[in-house]
Amino acid sequence: MNDETLKRLRPIVATYAQNKEALETITEDTDFIRDLKINSANLVDVVLDIEEEFDIEIDNDSMEQMLNVRVALQVIEAKLQQK
């Protein structure tokens, strides 16, 4: 896991996470909906905030897969490499 990317992702997710306790122990296996209790509407906001923070564009197919930290980090890092 890229610690720097996770460090930048954490405050974005924190804005929308209902389960702040799970946020403290976030790992690659953390699920945005099940563990952090982020609702699906706010998940779209998370993706929009990620696009702004990392100056990347995330397509719909990638967005639909970003349900946990592991996939989110993979998508972010892949998009950063394409820049």
Strand content: under 5%
Low-confidence stretches: none
Distance between the termini: 20 Å
Question: What do the pLDDT scores average to?
Answer: 94
The gyration radius over C-alpha positions equals 11 Å
What about the largest sheet? Answer: none
The residue fraction in helices comes out at 55-70%
Broad structural category: mainly alpha
What is the tally of beta strands? 0
Instruction: Please give the count of helices.
Output: 5
Order of helices and strands: HHHHH
The gross shape turns out to be globular
What does this 3D model show about the protein?
The model has no long low-confidence stretch (mean pLDDT 94). The chain has helices at 3-16, 20-24, 40-54, 60-65, 69-82. With 83 residues, the protein is mainly α.
Describe the structure concisely.
The protein is built from 5 helices and no strands.
Any key phrases for this structure?
83 residues, mainly alpha, 5 helices
Write the layout of secondary structure elements.
Blueprint: H1 3-16, H2 20-24, H3 40-54, H4 60-65, H5 69-82
Helix pairs in contact: 1-3
